[in-house]
Amino acid sequence: MGTTGIFAVFTDRATTGTNTVTSGSRPKAADLQIATTGSTYSDCQTFSEDLATGLITISDAQPLSKQIKNVCLRNVGASELTVTMKAVDLVDAEAGCTGDEAASGDATCGTGAGELSDLVAVNTNKIDCVTGAFGPTEGAWLSVLGGTGSMAIGTVAPGSQACVRIELTYAPLNTTATQQLRAQSDTATWRFAFDGATA
User: Fold this and answer.
1) Residue 74, SS3 per DSSP
2) Which residue among 23, 113, 122, 127 is least packed, with the fewest CB closer than 10 Å?
3) Of 126, 128, 54, 130, the residue nearest 90 (C-alpha)
4) H-helix or E-strand spanning residue 83
């Protein structure tokens, strides 16, 4: 008589229940908000992604007409932002043909594109919202800011705010009488844009 051995391999498995990993939400790397100010440069009002209204309104501007406004910027993103300011949607338009505008050589007097933004000087400073210390002054013509130019505001850390002073002057002393005559009865409209970029 012979016997036959059993050579089959037997296995068994023990398992756990379903395991789960869910990543938490994180703020955007770059998320810049803006607010108008109250009675002081650091009196920040309600922050939002964009302002519904403009900052600057000057009617019947004459040489050296000036207006100063302040805004607050808040970085609610995860990264430090380097902020710049420019003018977007800039439109220069002739609103009329008055005085010696045509005689001064304004070929588009009363119609078409105006010359006003070439005579509007924009200066800005970043202000420390706590100490009131002014950063360096940046300056440019509105027409340059509406083109390829921009002005450096500085850096804003995550969770921090920056106060920004904007000074606009029409026809400052470094403009000529002829330029001022050509730019009379013109209108310029634009929006200020603050761009925050990560390093």
Assistant:
1) strand
2) 23
3) 54
4) strand 81-94
